[in-house]
Write a structure and sequence with these properties.
The chain is mainly β. It contains no helices and 14 strands.
């Protein structure tokens, strides 16, 4: 495992960071750092022998938070705001098909595996059951339990 970032590198978080129950003085689920915040790498460690964890100091928040590499980009990279981020659970807003074969029905639940900010418009690689699909934001939406109302439509 080779670290992507080193001590002193300026990085940006691409998703909101919440307390997973390990942050002192906070409650599980409390927001620690907002999506788009910039910080500096203080240290790099290993978790469970296969995951790099970056200790990032977010100066504006005056917090030091552990972040996984998929939660970070270089602060020098252009920041393009996106609706969804890595790990978000979503649902299909309409039928998603390849060559006429429906891969995901309307309402099918999937998980965002990556955000392609290098594409115009932004595209999302989403895993539906056992198939990875590259989809635009118009093809997906938040599951009902994460929306303001249960009956909210995509």
């Amino acid at each position: 495992m080779t670290p992507e970032y080193e001590y002193g590198d300026k990085v940006r978080v691409v998703r909101m960071i919440r307390d997973d129950g390990t942050f002192p003085g906070k409650q599980r689920g409390d927001m620690l750092v907002k999506k788009g915040s910039v910080g500096y790498v203080k240290d790099v460690g290993v978790f469970l022998q296969d995951q790099l964890i970056y200790q990032v100091h977010f100066i504006d928040e005056d917090l030091i938070v552990g972040c996984r590499s998929q939660e970070l980009i270089s602060a020098d990279e252009p920041w393009v705001e996106s609706e969804f981020e890595f790990g978000d659970w979503i649902r299909a807003a309409n039928h998603l098909a390849i060559k006429g074969e429906v891969i995901a029905e309307v309402g099918a639940v999937g998980q965002v595996m990556s955000v392609r900010r290098d594409m115009e418009p932004i595209m999302y690689e989403v895993l539906f059951t056992d198939r990875m699909l590259l989809v635009p934001v118009s093809a997906i939406c938040w599951p009902p339990e994460t929306e303001e109302t249960e009956e909210a439509a995509c």
